[in-house]
Amino acid sequence: MSSFYRAHVLVCAGAGCVSSGCKAVEQALRAEVAQQGLDGEVKIIQTGCVGSCDQGPVIVVYPEGTFYRKVRPDDVPEIVEEHLLKGRPVERLLYRDESSEPVVNLEDIGFFKRQRKIVLRNCGVINPEDITEYIARDGYEALGRVLTEMTPEEVIDIVKRSGLRGRGGAGFPTGVKWGFTAKAAGSPKYVVCNADEGDPGAFMDRSVLEGDPHSVIEAMAIAGYAIGSNQGYVYVRAEYPLAIERLSIAIKQAREYGLLGKDIFSTGFDFDLEIRVGAGAFVCGEETALIASIEGRRGMPHPKPPFPANEGLWGKPTLINNVETYANIPPIILNGPEWFAGIGTEKSKGTKVFALAGKINNTGLVEVPMGTTLREIIYEVGGGIPGGRRFKAAQTGGPSGGCIPAEHLDVPMEYDSLVKLGAMMGSGGLIVMDDHTCMVDMARFFLQFTQDESCGKCTPCREGTKVMLDILTRITEGKGREGDVELLEDLARTIKNTALCGLGQTAPNPVLSTIRYFRDEYEAHIREKRCPAGVCQALVKYEIIQDKCRRCGLCQKACPVGAIEEVVAPEEEPVAVGAGATGITGTAVTAGAAATAGAARTKRKPLAINQEKCLKCGVCMRECRFQAITRV
Amino acid sequence: MDTARAKPKVKLTIDGREVEIEQGATVLEAARKAGIDIPTLCYHPAVGPSGACRVCIVEVEGARTLVASCVYPVAEGMVVRTNTAAVRAARKTVVELLIAGHPQDCLSCERNGKCELQALARNLGIRKVRYNISDKEHREPDTSSPSIVRNPDKCVLCGRCVTVCRDIQGVGALSFAYRGRRTLVTPSFEHGLGEAKCTSCGQCSAVCPVGAIVEKDDTGVVWDALDDPEKHVVVQVAPAVRAALGEEFGMPAGTPVTGKIAQALHMLGFDAVFDTQFAADLTIMEEGHEFIERLNRRGVLPLVTSCSPGWIRYCEQFHPEFLDHISTCKSPQQMMGAVIKSYYAKIKGIDPSKIFSVSIMPCTAKKYEAKRPEMRTSSAPSQDVDAVLTTRELARMIRAAGIDFANLEDGEFDSPLGISSGAGTIFGVTGGVMEAALRSVYEILTKKTLGDVRFEAVRGFDGVRHATIDIAGTQVRVAVVHGLGNAGRFLAGTEDSPDRYHFVEIMACPGGCICGGGQPISLDPAVRQLRASVLYREDERKPIRKSHENVEVRRLYDTFLGQPGSELAHRLLHTAYGPDAARLAREDRAHSAAFGRQPMSAAGV
Amino acid sequence: MAVMSATIGTAACKCSCGSNAGKLVDDRFPKLDAIIAKYKGKPGALIPVLHEAQQLFGCLSEDVQDRVASGLGISPSEVYGVSTFYSFFTLRPRGKWKIGVCLGTACYVRGAAEVVEALKKELDIPVNGTTKDGRFTLEVVRCLGACGLAPVMMIGDDVHGRVRPEQIPEILKEYR
Ligand SMILES: Cc1cc2nc3c(=O)[nH]c(=O)nc-3n(C[C@H](O)[C@H](O)[C@H](O)COP(=O)(O)O)c2cc1C
Ligand code: SF4
Ligand code: SF4
Ligand code: SF4
Ligand code: SF4
Ligand code: SF4
Ligand code: SF4
Ligand code: SF4
Ligand code: SF4
Ligand code: FES
Ligand code: FES
Ligand code: FES
To answer: Which of A24, A536, B96, B398 gives the lowest tally of CB atoms within 10 Å of its CB?
Structure first.
């Protein structure tokens, strides 16, 4: 069918591009193509996330594979005119790499070059709302083969031999889990897809559901066959309306095609799916809490054992896997376990999708073989740190994970090496931090998160993380005491060792790992009442460097609270310039002397920041064109 | 409970000792079996484990973290250590964290000295709380219920009350709300319990490990009455109280203290000390009469007992369609109250308005019952029962008065309302009312004397028990239900159909009144059995075992009431129910006539 | 039971979330009954019902929750426990525009906290507050999955990426 078209224009309709306005671009494209009479020749396809969300809206034109970025509706006529009619790429919309050379082809862009796409194989390539496109790319072939050629034991064996480990966080061997659930006594059994994606900063599950929902549906049906279940649930967080919509469409189409429902492929196997929408609780990503939530209860975890494989949904054996885990299944079936096991490292097979975000040039989704080093991901795929700043650390595993400092940039990204460093793979959120990030503040941020999201059931997590948070808060406020770091370490150990579920057991990780690598920063806050990164508001001060200041007055206008005041020259009003009385700092006073020179130059009075009024919002610093304001 | 199939056993090692226990048991159960006690807070044997507090943690070889022994299942060859330095330190930290967020008001707390959190702090040797949680949200105590007071600030979120109320009592008045540190145990929309659908059964207060749910304290008005020379203060004591009060004074569970109670009450200054068991006998006369009437005249059957106000309130709120089945007899407490302010006042020549009538009950719901507007049938302007004290409150009064209870001489109840049969005694245990009724109904209907007065089939603690008794040719089918959850299932007919029965006894509290919401608090699963045995033994020793043989009850009929079911008996001893009568009553006491019932207070004697 | 739901059926919603408030018969209650009927008997019905009820009413007032409880045959306290557990459910009516600032990690390291501060100041409300004119409710959310555009905030269904605090007055203008 697609061969009728001369060109395909793929418009990314992932969440990132939607928010940068891809809908308008798509409408403009359709209108322009129609106007030029190209309807029969050019096909416009909405896809899921292409991966480079910060470049959005993104469109890719095939057959060439030309990658256009930051496309605006008024760029569209030019693209149609130049590229689609005349075959000349529009250079100004092309991606430019570090050398500033425009790169025409998607495959040549560093961001895409190093990637190997298994999970994201269809994302950004097919229209997720059209099942035929999935089928055209071998979709549902794996399910067909499984149902017609394999026994459930064979399927489980393939998954085991592939070495696939769960991508939801803990990295438990998927085949083993399938085996347990298959063996568990009780019926009916259930297959659940964990699409709660709670780690803030990770969005690969969302992209898969939005860009390639059928891969998850197909995998769940395969899992159903393998463990002996006829009913699946996908638990999606409510924050992902687009994913829910696309998944619903996909389920409907799969039913229409007889790929879900009764007697699939005339093999007598029945399987159907239902979507359950979460309601805003991070802890519901934890499997026993997720079960409680599907059952319509408060998402409070349940002690394990019993594990869901034995007693899950409604007390029945239940298989729970993550979206990304499932998305790996069809290729494993089609290409064989050896193929999959040939990718990655000894104990971590296949690829991993990372959500690159934070202080990094190319943010977005990247899929690389397990074992790719952090350095490669950050510098080769991610294009390094913006503004040429120094890499300080990367947080992996979100609020349950830890940070990896610069000295470990060469760590291979796989389950076990990360654990050794006190971090963890988690779901693959990779937040890059530069030297403007305060590690104590980050630890406080994560603990605030876990404290807000704790279900409140068990004492160590409910009360203990609160005590830790209080301590961290006082440190960032300059009220830290000697011994606080030890108190934190002691509590962290107890909480990890005694909390009921994974949330509490991992909540102290960000604290422990920042203490491990950045103890000196904690000490600076506590002993010197200083925030080396200049982040902790109570500990920073904005000051005007008089030598650089041109007295343009921009900062004064920008300051929301009028904290930037004229310094009254000492000879005119000697009493007022007491540093204590006005709160004007030492710098300002010394500036008073320099002011005479400045005043002669500009006829304007020198400015200084009244620290009592200053909110520390940093607006003045951003506004100043002469870098005359510093944060100390 | 009665599954004969023995579970396979597993062997494990705890602190170097080998223990054998059934598969499916928890590490805690295994440890306790081996005589090793592990501290707990959220676990209660009658409520079940939840794994929430983490006080019971132990080391299990091979486990990634410490594990909560109350929920961790045993496995063959498991190696457990309950007393390592790591375990002790972690436990201490957990308890310190609980204390850090807790109002440390022990000196003025109802549970002072009987508090599980306090005991943990003591036993773990906590000398300093290293943490401080500053911004804990303060909430005012909920005093809206006539029976219990909730103080959410003291709640340790163990969840026992939630589980008891929802799963065991089938009521669901309390739930967890919010999450994280804001988690709160509360009725919906944070209303007071008095406005919620709560049966006042008090089971929540009986399982709360701390002072977060306690009985409403009415000792103050009783002390006032005792100090008032104008007042003639009369007290009655329910059967279940004598089976448990001793526990409050360090006596082993199962010690009968009937005589000591009578003595202590006299010492406290009550002018007359009566026995609710007298009224229990009276109840049997009226209820037996009602049953025979319904049986003979094809009235609404099954007839269901009415002596448990927790059950009444449950039925009114959740199964109003079933109200017609409930006996119109008042509970023994209220029969006694009505008799005191009418018959007793008359024979003693006391102005009923000068009488202050107190009852000592195992029950928090009785506090609510005494306040129902229809419980005002005497000519006195007050309720028939002026104040209800639970067993726990009586213990406090005895302590405050400096009475050395454990070493008291036995005293006697006063006459005429202090005489009772063994049938009245067993009212306090599930099945007791039924057994007492059967003893009398059988003899009245068959006009024969029972050889053995014991009806074993209705004894025991299975949730629902039934029996068929041949009475004068009629196969009378009876059922005994205890615990409101069981009652709910029974009424819903899921496991059994109520229609199959002629006569049903329902008690709100699991075990009956011996485990009422106002009884001494105990974590020992054996107390139920021990308390029941006190009553059954007392029954055995009584010279009279059947209610209709109680001479004082007979005299009451002969000289005052006439016949069971007479007009006067009806006015004084019977009542009616309505869907949520109590709520309507609270909203507008003045319009109690609006229930479509005869205003009882007009029925002066 | 039947008696009970009949009496609630004629009660007006006491909350001020919609234009129907104050009317004796709120036609949304029959719709709610239909929602309940659709899910009744299905396992795990409570959360989907609450989602739809919130969509219908704007918030989950006490009347709505009581109706859901009696309709599904669960206790009101349990419904309340669920509705207060999940941050997606709101018990009070919200402003016309719901502003959700992402405080996920990616957004946080890119300065989302300052965006929140700027919004608090501009609207003169705390987080979770609603402006007096009922136009805006300020909330903090966790990761909208658009981390590439951090810091991100949503106003209604519009996503705004790369927000700088000083842009706030400008952005809000569109919604005033
Ligand atoms: C607090 C917490 C949050 C979690 N959140 C998620 C999540 O959002 N998505 C996910 O797939 N797994 C999450 N997990 C892991 C799941 O509990 C579970 O291990 C996983 O879904 C299993 O799937 P897998 O074997 O395919 O990884 C979370 C675990 C914890 C303790
Ligand atoms: S660790 Fe935290 S989230 Fe998990 S059960 Fe305990 S309180 Fe709840
Ligand atoms: S930091 Fe903000 S408040 Fe302080 S002087 Fe600069 S603009 Fe004004
Ligand atoms: S903006 Fe910069 S140069 Fe201009 S007055 Fe302020 S500090 Fe001086
Ligand atoms: S509940 Fe226990 S620990 Fe708390 S104040 Fe009362 S006695 Fe003390
Ligand atoms: S235990 Fe200690 S603190 Fe408490 S009353 Fe006695 S002396 Fe005072
Ligand atoms: S008194 Fe009984 S019904 Fe009321 S909350 Fe307590 S346990 Fe529930
Ligand atoms: S009120 Fe008592 S029983 Fe209920 S959760 Fe709190 S501490 Fe536990
Ligand atoms: S069973 Fe006894 S203690 Fe419990 S509510 Fe009924 S009368 Fe009271
Ligand atoms: S959403 Fe378009 S590239 Fe990610
Ligand atoms: S007693 Fe075991 S966790 Fe509370
Ligand atoms: S962290 Fe803000 S959108 Fe993901």
So the answer is: A24
Q: How many angstroms away from the CA of B189 is the closest CA of chain C?
A: 6
> Looking at chain B, how many residues does it have?
605
Q: Which of A112, A144, A164 is the last residue of a domain?
A: A112
The predicted-structure confidence for B73-106, as pLDDT tens digits, reads as follows 999 999 999 999 999 999 999 999 999 989 999 9
Closest residue by CA, ligand 9 atom 2: B513
Mean pLDDT along residues A87-103 = 83
Q: Is residue A125 part of a domain?
A: no
B222-595 to CATH, choices 3.55.40.20, 2.120.10.70, 3.40.50.261, 3.40.50.1780:
3.40.50.1780
For B272, the token pair is: 């007359």
Residues 284-343 of A with CB under 8 A from C: 293-299, 314
Is B363 catalytic? The answer is: no
What CATH code is assigned to C97-173? Answer: 3.40.30.10
Q: How confident is the model at residue A603 (pLDDT cuts 50, 70, 90)?
A: low
Inter-chain CB proximity A15 and C43 less than 8 Å: no
Share of chain A above pLDDT 70, in %: 94
Distance B97 CA to ligand 5 centre (A): 14
Contact A467 B133 (CB under 8 A): yes
C-alpha–C-alpha distance, residues A561 and B108, integer Å: 50
pLDDT in tens, A456-470: 999 999 999 999 999
So what's the architecture of C1-91 in CATH?
A: Orthogonal Bundle (1.10)
Chain A positions touching B52 (Cβ under 8 A) are 457-459, 500
Same domain (yes/no): A136, A250: yes
Q: Which fold has domain B3-83?
A: Ubiquitin-like (UB roll) (3.10.20)
Q: What percent of chain B has pLDDT over 90?
A: 89
| Beta strands at A42-47 and B213-215: parallel, antiparallel or unpaired | unpaired
* B365 touches ligand 9 (CB under 6 Å): yes
Ligand 7 atom with the smallest distance to the CA of B199 is: 3
The alpha carbons of chain A give a radius of gyration, in whole angstroms, of: 28
Tokens read off for B403:
């009475």
Query: Does domain B132-215 bear CATH number 3.10.20.600?
Result: no
A281 contacts chain B (CB < 8 A): yes
Give residue C25's pLDDT: 63
pLDDT 10s digits, B525-563: 999 999 999 999 999 999 999 999 999 999 999 999 999
* C77 interfaces chain B, CB cutoff of 8 Å: yes
The whole domain housing A620 covers 541-631
CA distances to B315, B323, B329, C7 from B579, in Å? 8, 8, 17, 14
- Count, residues in chain C: 176
Nearest to B98 among A453, A459, A487 (CB): A459
pLDDT value for A96: 80
User: What is the C-alpha to C-alpha distance for residues A412 and A430, in angstroms, rounded to an integer?
Assistant: 14
Helices of type H across B252-390 = 258-268, 276-296, 309-318, 332-339, 345-348, 365-371
Contact A19 C159 (CB under 8 A): yes
Paired tokens of B531: 């308390």
Q: What share of chain C is helix, strand, coil (3-state, %, to 5)?
A: 45, 10, 45
A555 lines ligand 2 (CB under 6 A): no
Structure tokens at B359: 């009852």
CA of C113 to the centre of ligand 4 (A): 25
pLDDT band for position A275 (cuts 50, 70, 90): very high
Q: What pTM, to 2 d.p., does this model score?
A: 0.91
Q: A506 and A367: one domain?
A: no
Nearest CB to B180 within list A455, A494, A496: A455
| A621 in any annotated domain | yes
Does A300 lie in the same domain as A357? no
Total domains, chain A: 5
Q: What ipTM, to 2 d.p.?
A: 0.91
Determine the distance in angstroms separating the CA of B72 from the nearest CA of chain A, rounded to an integer. Answer: 7
Contact (Cβ atoms closer than 8 angstroms) between residue C159 and residue C144: yes
